[in-house]
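Quick review question:
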């Protein structure tokens, strides 16, 4: 599905100032858009039907842990759905925990159009993938594979054939990929989260002990992959 008509709302004021920047850090001040930024969707909470309260607790825990270890990075949780339940849960919990709102915030919009729709540059985006790392299937996976062009499929296959739940793989984009050219996205990180949907492979049948463990591993793996990308 093509969702490009949905406006980006709720965009944090901290980054819109840096709109002019594209590799402009050699002159003058570092602006918000120069900071290594990972945009990520909420893993497992739509098609994979993971409980939103549990998922939002885990996002907050993992974001907090990562930001206290790694400097000069920003994390942005993105959801296409206006008035997203996940985004409101996460925003409330982030405020409660006093997480620095310049380093972690939420954006309502299409993760494949953050720059063109809001002037917000994220050099890395995460994908809530499937275990075969295949395009399509709906959700954010279909959106990212279609926005990046066929080259993403080929580049992905070079890195990995499959993913196990809780793990991730970094795929660099070629400069001629539409996502790179148009949005400034240099890498996609595929992540496979835990699945609670009986119609999808590896269903955990509401085992939230296992499910939460795998979701924690998924975010740890995602953030470590992000930190490992060469600047
Ligand atoms: N931009 C930003 N967020 C989005 C977009 C988008 N273009 N599209 C969806 N979301 P889901 P999962 C949000 O279902 O639950 C796929 O078919 C969505 O609102 O994409 O991990 C894969 O192939 C939700 O908050 O991923 C797997 O088989 C979040 O992205 C399976 O679904 C994740 O929703 C993975 O299921």
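Suggested answer, residue by residue:
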């Amino acid at each position: 599905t093509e969702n490009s008509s949905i406006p980006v709302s709720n965009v944090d004021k901290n980054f819109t100032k840096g709109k002019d920047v594209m590799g402009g850090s050699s002159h003058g001040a570092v602006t918000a858009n120069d900071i290594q930024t990972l945009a990520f969707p909420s893993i497992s909470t739509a098609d994979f039907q993971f409980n939103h309260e549990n998922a939002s607790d885990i996002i907050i825990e993992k974001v907090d842990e990562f930001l206290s270890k790694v400097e000069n990075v920003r994390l942005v949780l993105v959801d296409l759905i206006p008035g997203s339940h996940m985004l409101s849960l996460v925003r409330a919990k982030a405020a409660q925990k006093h997480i620095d709102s310049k380093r972690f915030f939420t954006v309502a919009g299409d993760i494949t159009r953050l720059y063109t729709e809001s002037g917000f540059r994220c050099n890395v985006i995460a994908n809530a993938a499937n275990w075969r790392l295949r395009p399509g299937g709906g959700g954010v996976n279909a959106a990212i594979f279609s926005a990046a062009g066929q080259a993403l499929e080929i580049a992905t296959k070079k890195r990995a054939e499959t993913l196990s739940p809780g793990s991730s793989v970094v795929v660099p984009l070629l400069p001629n990929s539409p996502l790179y050219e148009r949005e400034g996205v240099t890498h996609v990180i595929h992540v496979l989260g835990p699945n609670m949907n009986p119609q999808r492979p590896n269903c955990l049948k509401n085992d939230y002990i296992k499910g939460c463990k795998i979701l924690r591993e998924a975010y740890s793996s995602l953030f470590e992959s992000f930190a490992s990308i060469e600047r």
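Why it works: The chain is about 35% helix and 15% strand. Residues 208-228 form the longest helix (21 residues).
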